Amino acid sequence: MIDLLVAGGGPAGLATAIHAARRGLQTVVIEKRPGAIDKACGEGLMPHAVRELGLLGAHPAGVPFRGITYLDGKRSVSAAFASGPGLGVRRTALHRALLDAAGAAGVRIETGTVGAVTQDDDGVCVNGIRARYLAAADGLHSPVRAGLGLHRPGPATRRWGFTRHVGVAPWSDCVEVYWAADPAAGEAYVTPVAGDCVGVAILSSRQGGFDEHLAAFGALRDRLAGHPNEPDRAAGPLRQRVARRVVGRVLLVGDAAGYVDALTGEGLGLSFAAARTLVDSVVADRPADYERRWRKTTRRYRLMTAGVLRASGSPLRPLIVPAARLAPPVFTRIVNLLAE
Ligand SMILES: Cc1cc2nc3c(=O)[nH]c(=O)nc-3n(C[C@H](O)[C@H](O)[C@H](O)COP(=O)(O)OP(=O)(O)OC[C@H]3O[C@@H](n4cnc5c(N)ncnc54)[C@H](O)[C@@H]3O)c2cc1C
């Protein structure tokens, strides 16, 4: 019997597997897609996520950014990170670096689709593989989570993410967040990911094509016009409510464990931090501890993201950028609470 089986080899699954293998656990990852996987993502690693990557021994090529800029079409305001730069990094580069680190740690990766999960007092069984524990890292719509009946209904207003890579040299050393006047049109993020490429992510409560969404951000649309782009991607609904993160010997990590919104760009850093916590609980043979520790690790992010999300959908929305400009220390403090 192996020690830890990981369902899903995205960033959360690979981070979990790397930490586990390094702690001496025999670890197998089952991922349905081979190679370096692309996915709709803003691709901005906040400073704490960069530190977590270092702990994982993963060093992808990317573009450092020094903070966050908010823009509303009329004005802009920037806040610098106090604890070092963030990193804009393409998902494929991130995934390749994590795969390399997993290989170096001795993780076995199998290509396959995770099927039904059964468990007893001593272990779990998936696809004929028996393990002491299962980490479900199978993403936003986690089939393992659904199979365990842990999914809870989301809010009435749903949001989706739409992404595109554009072949243009980055023009800012910050991640830019453009706030559309109409709350339903949402926010557009621009992250520098290479010397000749930016990633654009739009979060919106409307469905539709990327160009349709981009039309709500006139200045950004004009800046991107005429530059080549890669095929668009989409993901959502973003909000995923989860009853709990531990059922017997199955522990949920990454987006599978629950997701608020991409508004504050925290998903990867939290996935990496939760992966460490999960492995601590497995090594201690105390899986139930993970729920409490997950809540503690993610509390600030969940509360702050939910707070910004509420403000963004309220009559306060038009005041967000002017208020940040009027009180730069407050804006900088909020940005750094999320970056730490
Ligand atoms: C539009 C958007 C913008 C974002 N921007 C940012 C950002 O700027 N910064 C940031 O930190 N985070 C951002 N995020 C969040 C970030 O993308 C996620 O938090 C992160 O990808 C979570 O990783 P994961 O491994 O949990 O899930 P995933 O990356 O989705 O990986 C799950 C893996 O499980 C596999 N899988 C699923 N089902 C099965 C199965 N049955 N069998 C085998 N394998 C399976 C999938 O193939 C996949 O590889 C953004 C998200 C979105 C949608």
TrEMBL record:
Q: From which lineage does this chain's organism come?
A: Bacteria, Bacillati, Actinomycetota, Actinomycetes, Mycobacteriales
Q: Is the Oxidoreductase keyword given for this protein?
A: yes
The molecular function GO annotations come to: 3-hydroxybenzoate 6-monooxygenase activity; FAD binding
- Organism of derivation: Mycolicibacterium chlorophenolicum
Note one Pfam family from the annotation.
FAD_binding_3
UniProt keyword list: Oxidoreductase
Domain of life of the organism encoding this protein: Bacteria
Would you tell me the protein name for this molecule? 3-hydroxybenzoate 6-hydroxylase 1
The EC designation for this entry is: 1.14.13.24
**Signal sequence extent:** none
Q: InterPro entries annotated for this entry? A: FAD-bd, FAD/NAD-bd_sf, Geranylgeranyl_reductase
Top enzyme category: oxidoreductase
Residues in domain FAD-binding?
Answer: 3-279
